[in-house]
Fold this sequence. Notes:
By secondary structure, the chain is α+β, with helices and mostly antiparallel strands. The chain is built from eleven helices and 16 strands. It has a seven-stranded mixed sheet with strand order 9-16-11-15-12-13-14, sandwiched between helices. A five-stranded mixed sheet has the order 3-10-8-7-6, sandwiched between helices.
Amino acid sequence: MNLTPSPFAPARFPDLPVVNGVRAATGSRGFYARRGMERDDMFLFVLDEGTACAGVYTVSNTASADVLWCREALEQGAGAARALVVNAGNSNAFTGPKGVLKNEATLKAMTETLGVPKETCFLAATGVIGEPLSDPNYVGMMVPELAGKLAPPDWEAAARAFMTTDTFPKGAGSTLDLDGTPVHFAGIAKGSGMIAPNMATMLSYVFTDAAIEPGLLQALLADITNQTFNSITVDGDTSTSDTLMVFATGASGMAPIRTPEDPRFEALADALHAVCQDLSHLIVKDGEGASKFVTITVKGAVSSQSAKVIASEIANSPLIKTAMAAGDANWGRVVMAVGKSLEPIRMDQLSIWFDDVLVAENGSRAENYSEAAASAVFAQPEFTICVDAGVGDQSHTVWTCDLTHAYVDINGAYRT
């Protein structure tokens, strides 16, 4: 499949910091060889003893065997992590007992090769659904080879290794000072299609050498996910394999953060939020066939959840997304999406803006409405749609992209 690079693709992969306590290696297991592609399609991360982790996973009722294992391991290991194996090209979803056997073989290879407990080993897979591997150890047999190549992570190589229909590798990171201790963050993500806010809607991993108690990290990640990865959509479809995990090695040397009252907690939370938001935006900007990146904010709602529902209805509407692609500033379709959300609004108070252009106010078209001004907004590669529901003081923001014919082309050829 030949993919046209996203118009939002960065000129280069970002320079991400070294995260102490993390080693990695990438390699090729040949998942893409039958498609005539030679590329890495697998990575191994190994984490220092004492690493805390947190994770959120797809809520799909057809979750992959890998997701089911990660949920179990996160609970069994009480938030401890030592290793991560991820492959692209086969999602190990809807593979029945054969999918479980694949996981058992991979976990056995990880525990024996690395000498770490099974419940501290995490797995993920992305790619075609419903194709069991002929050999349960197909992935596991690569673990010893990758373990022999472990080194400080090549973040770009890892980000490329789990790409599927992505047109560019996605990475984000930062360094901050916590009471005199430098703390580093580096994150990678993959995702382009099958993206809808119902957990995390992709695979993403963030690594930091901060020290934080696992339960506190889990609560923090859940909150951040709602504001970032759970507030993006490309096509309204939720994957079977969605996984977002954060690994905190503690190797910076800082004393652990154990409560949200710790004066360092807010700075750490802000840094993690920034990395997650950057990664989530990159996924939307690489949406399959996307040519527009659109921010949708709903304010004046009865609750932030109500605002999110309304914003998501706008973001997922095929009528609105195709209008975005065509540059058609059809604000009536926004009215339609607000109404079908069935959320509380006051129609006589409802107002809509495209960027700073007021197109509707107090339940009808704006008195000074300008089709030319509205169309100029929709002609831009990036713009904002803002709706005031007129019933409260709560708000939420969702990010989406347009829907072009390229989306059909990509998904029509996905398995070829």
